[in-house]
């Protein structure tokens, strides 16, 4: 990262971490599964056992308000249904949707907001006294089927652009990938302690204020101590969050393009971006590329 980019990224991370829909990510706890596939599969299994559905999604939504609540204005319902249908066309999409539909205590709200346009976000997280996540909101823009984000933090969604422009994939695939990305945030947040989340929200502005006043010196002992308490500096926390979202988007694409003749080209395009911009997070993408459901691992080793 060039030095001239550092102040901007810290400001960007701060605004995102402290926004109306903040989505933070904890560092990987020692001894826990390290791959994206293992992490998400573990969270599915835990959710299924809590819901009593390990034998086939037989439970009903929790009496205390769990489930998915879709609050979509009539003018957006048709396009939203197209995005949702595309997400549900994959095994991974159906499995994740089913888990949250029948979740015993987590209510996931999904809404479409005009001001978001091409973007999406997740937040409004709440926990109960037992430390369980009981509420989260996914906000979708009105045109999430348009607008390809940068390959720097979004290597999966960015890789779709040439395939949509050549009409090998329709625009709803991009929208579904954005939905999968936000589901990835919610899945990870379910295993994030509320105390850590609140601590990060509290300390990020403190970190940023010192950073802007000390000549952008990240080696300042005060910043080093704050980063240790938060599990990383604001940029590291934000990067980790976004790459977990992209890992879930890649799981969706794994199922979506497994039988397509161009799937290796698509996965190799993702690989190049990951190697260039996200080398420290490469393992989580590699595990997905090599996991069951992909005909070939392509160039991922």
Q: What form results from the Cα inertia axes?
A: globular
Assembly annotation = single chain
Structure classification: alpha/beta
Unreliable stretches: 1-16, 18-37, 43-63
- Helices and strands, in order, run as HHEHHEEEHHHHHHHH
> How does the major sheet shape up?
4 strands, mixed
Helix segment tally: 12
**Spatial order of the strands in the main sheet?**
1-2-4-3
In short:
This protein is of the alpha/beta class. The chain contains twelve helices and four strands; from the N terminus they run H-H-E-H-H-E-E-E-H-H-H-H-H-H-H-H.
Report on the structure:
By secondary structure, the protein is of the alpha/beta class. It has helices at 6-17, 36-51, 74-88, 91-101, 155-158, 161-165, 171-189, 194-213, 221-230, 234-256, 263-277, 282-290, and strands at residues 67-71, 107-113, 120-127, 133-141. Strands 1-2-4-3 form a four-stranded mixed sheet, covered by helices on one side. Helix 7 (171-189) packs across helix 10 (234-256) and helix 8 runs antiparallel to helix 9 (221-230). The longest helix is centred in the C-terminal third of the chain and has 23 residues, at 234-256. 38% of the residues are buried. The model is unreliable at 1-16, 18-37 and 43-63 (pLDDT under 50).
